[in-house]
Amino acid sequence: MLVKTIKKKNKNYKPIWFMRQAGRHLPNYQKLRKKHNTFLNFCLTTSSIVEATLIPIKEYDLDAVILFSDILILPWTLGQKVSFIKNIGPQLSNIDYKTIALKSDVNLIDVLEPIGTAIKQVKSKIPISKDLIGFAGAPWTIACYMIEGGTSKNFEKIREILWNDERGFLEFYDRLTNKVIDLLEYQVKCGVDVLMIFDTWSHMIPSVYWQKLGIVSMATIVEELRRRGVLVPIIGFPFKAGEKLVQYSYESKVDVVSVDWSMDLKWVLNNINKHVVTQGNLDPIALTTENTQSLTKAVTEILDITKDKVHIFNVGHGLTPKTQIENVKKTITLVRTGTQ
Ligand code: CP3
C-alpha cells in the first residue's frame, strides 16, 4: 500500500515501514549475520539478501520491505576496498578521486548480479499489497565515505578537496552521480517498486555548495531516471538539512521527502512544496524506551499533525540495535488503528 498511497495521494491511509528495519535489533538478523564473516559477503549472497529483506515482514505488519544492501556497495563496485569493522564502522581504502570511476568499463550489471537476482526473488515472495524499496546513497554522502575513508566528525578532507580543486571534485561528482543513476535504474529493472536516496551527510555540504551538490545532483538523478523510463516513486532523505528542506522539496524533483527526527513536522508541512508527500519523523530512540507513554504520545502527535496529509509513517533515521520489538509493534498498532 506504499506506492498506491503515494500515487493516489491518499490522505486516509498511513503506510508504515522503518528505516533500517532489517537490522540489528532483530534476533533473526543476528543469527543470519553470524553466517558471514564479512558484511560485504553478506550483502553479496543472494539467499541471505532475500532472507534479511524478508525478516521484518515476518515479525511486523508493514507496508514495505527495503532491499537488504548498503550504500557502500557502490564504491566497492568502482574498485575501492570496503570493510565494515565492528564498533568502528565502515573503512574504505585510499582512492584518487581524479581517476576512480573514470573507467566506464566497470560493468555494474555483472558485479551486481547477486543483488538483481535477490530483488527478483523477494518480489516473487512478498504479497502484492507490500512494496519493495530499492535505494542508493546520494552522491554527496557516498563521496564523503569514499574520500574520507570512513565516518568522520566534520568531513574536512572532502571539504578541503572541494575548496582546493573545485573542478576536479565536480568532475568526480558527475561520474559518481552517473553511477548512482545506473545502480537505481538496475534495481528498478530487476523489480523494485520504490526508490529511496539517502543523503545522510547532507548537513556537511558547505552552504554555498548546497544548491549544486545537494539539490541539482538530485534533480539530475530523478530527471535522468525519468528519461530512461523509470516511473516508480522516488523518496529523498537529506538528513539534518534543516531549513534547506524547503528548497529541496521544490527543486530536487523527488516525489517524497523523508523528514528527520530533528525537524518540527508542523513547520515542515507548512513550509515545503505542497505537492510533495512526506515521510517520517519519529525519533528512532523513542523505540528504545521503557516509557511507553512517551512513545504513544510521540506517535499520536505525528498522526494528529499529518491527519489531513499524504504521509508515510516512519522513523526520522534508522532503527538502532537497542530498539524494542514491543515498541515497534505498539507503534504499528497505533498507526493502524488511528487510520483505519
Ligand atoms: O533495513 C534496512 O534499512 C536495509 C539495509 C540498509 C543497511 N544500510 C544495512 C546495514 C540500509 C538502507 C543502509 C543504508 C546506509 N548505510 C546508510 C544511509 C542511511 C543511514 O543510516 O544514514 C549509510 C550512511 C550506510 C553506511 C553504513 N553501513 C554504516 C555507517 C554502517 C556501520 C554503522 C552501523 O550502523 O552499523 C553500515 C553497516 C550496516 N549497513 C549494517 C546494516 C544492517 C550493520 C552491519 C552489521 O550487521 O555488522
What layout of secondary structure does this protein have?
Layout (H helix, E strand, L loop, with lengths): L1 H7 L18 H8 L4 H5 L2 H14 L4 E3 L6 H5 L4 E4 L3 E4 L15 H4 L1 H13 L5 E7 L1 H10 L7 H9 L1 H25 L3 E6 L10 H18 L6 E5 L5 H8 L4 E4 L5 H7 L5 E6 L9 H14 L5 E5 L9 H15 L1
Parallel strand pairs: 1-4, 4-5, 5-6, 6-7, 7-8, 8-9
Antiparallel strand pairs: 2-3
The chain binds coproporphyrinogen III.
The site of coproporphyrinogen III has 22 residues, from strand 3.
Instruction: State Rg.
Output: 19 Å
Number of strands: 9
Q: What's the SSE pattern? A: HHHHEHEEHHEHHHEHEHEHEHEH
Helix fraction, binned, reads: 40-55%
Q: Provide the β-strand percentage band.
A: 5-15%
How many angstroms does the end-to-end distance come to?
13 Å
- Molecules bound to protein: coproporphyrinogen III
Explain how this protein is built.
This protein is α/β, with parallel strands linked by helices. The protein is 48% helix and 13% strand. The chain has 15 helices and nine strands. The chain has helices spanning 2-8, 27-34, 39-43, 46-59, 73-77, 108-111, 113-125, 139-148, 156-164, 166-190, 210-227, 244-251, 265-271, 292-305, 325-339, and strands at residues 64-66, 82-85, 89-92, 131-137, 194-199, 234-238, 256-259, 277-282, 311-315. The chain has a seven-stranded parallel beta sheet with strand order 1-4-5-6-7-8-9. Strands 2-3 form a two-stranded antiparallel sheet. Helix 4 (46-59) packs parallel to helix 7 (113-125), helix 8 packs across helix 10 (166-190) and helix 10 runs parallel beside helix 11 (210-227). It is globular and about 55 Å long. The protein starts with a helix and ends with a helix. The model has no long low-confidence stretch (mean pLDDT 96). It binds coproporphyrinogen III (CP3). Coproporphyrinogen III (CP3) is lined by residues 19-24, 33, 39, 66, 68-72, 84, 89-90, 135, 151, 198, 200, 318. Coproporphyrinogen III binds at residues 19-24, 33, 39, 66, 68-72, 84, 89-90, 135, 151, 198, 200, 318.
